[in-house]
Amino acid sequence: MRVLDILECTTVDGPGFRTSIYVAGCRHQCPGCHNPQSWDAKGGVDMSIDDILAVVRRDPFGGVTLSGGDPMFQAGECVELCQRIKESTGKSLWCYTGFTWEEIHSHGSREMVQLAEMVDVLVDGRFVMALRDTDLLFRGSANQRLIDVPRTIECGCVCLWQRD
Ligand code: SF4
Description:
Elements: E1 2-10, E2 18-23, E3 45-46, H1 49-56, E4 63-68, H2 75-89, E5 93-96, H3 101-107, H4 110-118, E6 121-124, E7 145-148, H5 149-155
Parallel strand pairs: 2-4, 4-5, 5-6
Antiparallel strand pairs: 1-2, 1-3, 6-7
Helix pairs in contact: 1-2, 2-4
The structure holds iron/sulfur cluster.
Iron/sulfur cluster binds at residues 26, 28-30, 33, 35, 38, 68-70, 98, 126-127.
């Protein structure tokens, strides 16, 4: 898969120390996007799932976050990666996407739905400049939601993640 960067021990993409994997490619073109260089699907470097897992395993305790770009544009590869991370480490998984939960479930591909439903928290929605707020926790604009995925699936309606 194409990966822009992997940052270890970050604290801005979810709770605790995390390994953040920045997946190449995004077609949302949000005005004010903090990282337009991430839009190119051919950007970054090719990495195998094993290469990425080797980096993830360097931290025995922290969680993992998929960001980008938008991981939904490489959903199949990200599903495989998340499966391998879950099976081999049991780490907490977060995923950022410009799609909303509802968009993914109404017209997303099977892989997009799988990816959305296999992570612990989905941070959903495009970045909206008019709703930008630098005080928000783990997100850039107020329309974006930190969705508690297991609770959402259990309840059948979107439940928001709360910090313990
Ligand atoms: S979804 Fe994220 S990466 Fe994509 S254009 Fe919007 S802000 Fe930029």
